[in-house]
Amino acid sequence: MTPSASPATATASGTSRPRLVIAITGASAPHLGIGLLRALRHLGTVETHLVISGAAHRTIELETGMTSGQVADLADVVYKRHDIAASIASGSFQTMGMVVAPCSMKTLAGIAHGFSADLVTRAADVVLKERRPLVLLPRETPLSLIHLRNMVAVTEAGATVLPPTPAFYQRPTSIDDLLAHLTGKVLDQLGIEHDLYPRWQTPEGDAR
């Protein structure tokens, strides 16, 4: 883990890994971002650049039994949330996109209206203006009309809204199974190969 570092850009030989920005914000379920970091560390194919919001430090402590430092140790590069001079605050810093998991309604509103109050919202703004993938996992229920309109706004701007809605066709037997499926759905949006959940196939006997 290197705080506020700027890894070397990809070389012509293709030896450098693509970079992915990951933000964990203060909504419930920081497990979503942690699961993504763990999966990418296991795969070893992507360099992870992490930002943890101020409120997320508290939810990590309350909900996971981990410290923010332990979560940061799962990433390759970590940035301070107010460091607007960080690499990921510039479009010239090449990344494959960004994931906000979970995405609080405050963060959603900031992204939807281009209000870059911290590094999370600035990095998301950069990803959108550079036409790179931005995947948001909003964690709130029920949703107000304000929330829904903000989701429409970010979708129109080019982001993907991916609610962390569990699926049951893979017959999960644990919370870890549910988290693996959600992590896999995120990786699918970014074109990252994985085997985190079984793909749906026509049930035996249904094919004609």
Number of domains: 1
- Counted beta strands: 7
The CATH superfamily appears as Flavin prenyltransferase-like
* The CATH C-level class name: Alpha Beta
Indicate the CATH architecture.
3-Layer(aba) Sandwich
Q: What's the oligomerization state?
A: single chain
CATH topology: Rossmann fold
Beta-strand level of the residues, as a percent range?
5-15%
Secondary-structure element string: EEHEHHEEHHEHEH
Cα distance spanning the termini: 53 Å
The biggest beta sheet reads: 7 strands, parallel
* Helical content (DSSP H or I, runs of 4+): 25-40%
Tell me, what's the shape?
globular
Structural description of this entry:
- The protein has 208 residues and is an alpha/beta fold.
- The protein contains 7 helices and 7 strands.
- The protein has helices spanning 31-43, 54-64, 68-72, 105-112, 119-129, 145-157, 175-190; strands at residues 2-3, 19-24, 47-52, 77-79, 98-103, 134-138, 160-161.
- A 7-stranded parallel β-sheet has the order 1-4-3-2-5-6-7, with helices on both faces.
- Helix 1 links the parallel strand 2 and strand 3.
- Helix 1 (31-43) packs across helix 7 and helix 4 crosses helix 6 (145-157).
Summarize this structure briefly.
With 208 residues, the chain is α/β, with parallel strands linked by helices.
